[in-house]
Specification:
six-stranded mixed beta sheet, disordered N terminus, Pdz3 Domain, alpha+beta
């Protein structure tokens, strides 16, 4: 539609005749004297436009998260299976168990302009955050990528452990000291490479055991036995208390696993820990007969511990939009992210709340078998 100012037809002369029908006489107008303020006004206008353009392109300390691609853990990436297993029978699976990703612009990944931040703010599928909420101050792109790669590798090992535990397949699991924090309560007593054997006489099978014993002791000295290069070493350590009230030994711990078969996960240019739950589901489906999804298109996100607990992640709003755009009709979301799920679910996507791998597996089986998915747990307003 073309909108014209006023209701005068184009080309129609104005006041061509007076009311008596006689043609008016128009005297030639006196030549106008140039206003000396006009050049200054033009220059000021151009300067304002220039400043506006410059301001729009200046970097701002914000980060924009937007929906990224999805990857089917039961499929291939760059011609290779995302999940491949050797040393055990595998079973081809149909359907999709998609892991979801988020594009992150800004921070160490390169600056964004105020125009880009404002544009993203208007897009309901994107999110804008102050840079310091997403990245530590001073972190470089290389450091961020390295941390992301380490987190991805850890999530893959945790996913394998969680899947095997869900299937009651035995494997060896140890908890090793990876380092000590500053002012550690274990300084001079524990060393990098020590493997936890017991705490207060209780065998250490997971981090949860250590945490439970320290919490039960309420700050009392704990008897810690570690394996140091094949020699049992016993130390008495008084744990420190954090501002949150937790008791800690001040050590960085990592799991060391020995699995009965090899699981390899191949996925290029994707980092972080948030794919853990979907990796675990993919492994479960790969090494068990039948088709877990029943051919359905299911996506999800969530960290995973070796015990199968599903943890919170970032960018869940963008991941739900990415999942729907990728064709998913069901999305598995960590219970800890429910406050970010409610009110932000894209049309056509059913979101199921899960707290552990067993619940996630049950949800997929229900959908895959044609069961009533309306009874599955959902996120609600508290």
């Amino acid at each position: 539609m073309t909108i014209t100012q006023g209701d005068q037809a184009p080309g129609e002369p104005t006041d061509a005749r007076n009311s008596g029908g006689r043609r008016r006489r128009f005297l030639p107008r006196r030549a106008r004297t140039p206003n000396p303020r006009y050049p200054a006004m033009v220059v000021s206008g151009l300067l304002a436009v220039g400043l506006g353009v410059t301001a729009a392109t200046l970097p701002v300390p914000y980060v924009v998260e937007s929906p990224g691609p999805t990857f089917n853990t039961l499929g291939n990436d760059n011609g290779k299976p995302v999940i491949s297993v050797s040393g055990r029978d595998t079973f081809p699976a149909k359907g999709n168990l998609d892991l979801t990703t988020v594009y992150v612009d800004g921070g160490p990944n390169g600056p964004i302009s105020i125009f880009e931040a404002f544009e993203a703010w208007l897009d309901q599928s994107k999110a804008v955050y102050p840079e310091e909420l997403i990245f530590p101050t001073g972190v470089t792109k290389e450091q961020s990528q390295q941390e992301s790669a380490v987190a991805m590798a850890t999530s893959q090992e945790n996913a394998t452990a969680a899947a095997l535990k869900e299937l009651d397949i035995p494997f060896e699991q140890k908890l090793q000291v990876a380092g000590l924090s500053q002012s550690s309560a274990s300084q001079g007593k524990l060393q990098t490479g020590d493997i936890f054997t017991s705490v207060n006489g209780r065998p250490v099978t997971s981090l949860a055991v250590v945490q439970a014993e320290l919490a039960a002791g309420k700050g009392k000295p704990a008897t810690v036995v570690v394996d140091r290069n094949g020699t049992a070493v016993t130390e008495t350590i008084t744990p420190a208390q954090t501002p949150a009230g937790k008791f800690i030994l001040g050590v960085l711990l990592q799991y060391k696993f020995k699995f009965p078969f090899d699981v390899k996960i191949s996925l290029d240019k994707v980092g972080g820990p948030s794919a853990g739950m979907m990796f675990a589901l993919g492994i479960v489906d790969t090494v068990t007969p039948g088709d877990l999804t029943g051919g359905k298109h299911i996506a999800g996100t969530g960290t995973i511990t070796p015990d199968g607990a599903v943890g919170a992640i970032g960018g869940i709003g963008q991941k739900m939009y990415g999942a729907r755009a990728g064709g998913a009709t069901m999305f598995l979301a960590p219970a800890a992210n429910c406050d970010e799920v409610v009110g932000h679910i894209p049309a056509g996507l059913q979101v199921v709340k899960v707290e552990n791998l067993a619940e996630a597996r049950e949800a997929v089986q229900t959908a895959g078998s044609g069961g009533d998915t309306s009874r599955l747990p959902v996120c609600t307003n508290n």
